[in-house]
Amino acid sequence: MKKKIPKSVLVVVHDKDLNILLLERADRDNFWQSITGSVDYLEEDLFEAAQRELREETGIIAGSHDWINWNFSREFKIFPQWKFKYEDNVEFNTEHIFSVCVESQNKITLSPREHVNFKWLFWREAAEKCFSWTNVLAIKELPVRFQKEKI
Question: Which residues pair with 130 in a beta bridge?
């Protein structure tokens, strides 16, 4: 198995009313999250990685004008249950944050090896449902970031 690069993207998918798309992980029951994924290679463009992950995990292809690159990242300690996916000496991952506004009526095609279910929840409910603290913070920050972009 190819080891993951500890550089990833987090994509908060939402509609114009700030309902958030959450996905339930296939490998952990009741672990809900936004779109996430490591870069495929060290020099991969982060925006392209975010677009790729959105497409791979949901089947959604969003126009470039629907995206917000937060130009912001957080470093977190890799959860013990996923340490095996990285080189032995890797302890932390740097996650770069994006959001994308789509229609909640979009057809969602899950990647069955990654996710088993999806739901749309208002941002406050979605933040409470996520297991990852970085995902929770990004969802809680979304209303301000989205509003700034609309002005």
Answer: 32
38-97 per-position pLDDT tens digit: 999 999 999 999 999 999 999 999 999 999 999 999 999 999 988 999 999 999 999 999
Q: Cα separation of 92 and 8, whole Å?
A: 11
CA distances from 142 to 15, 59, 69, 79, 82 (A): 11, 22, 12, 24, 27
Is 99 within 8 Å of 146 (Cβ atoms)?
yes
> CA–CA separation, 10 vs 140, rounded Å?
14
pLDDT higher than threshold 60 for residue 34: yes
Classify domain 7-150 by CATH number.
3.90.79.10
Instruction: Give the span between the Cα atoms of 79 and 143, in whole angstroms.
Output: 27
* 111-151 pLDDT, tens digit each: 999 999 999 999 999 999 999 999 999 999 999 998 877 64
With contact defined as beta carbons under 8 Å apart, do 5 and 42 qualify? yes
Q: pTM of whole model > 0.70?
A: yes
β-pairing verdict for 7-14 and 67-77? unpaired
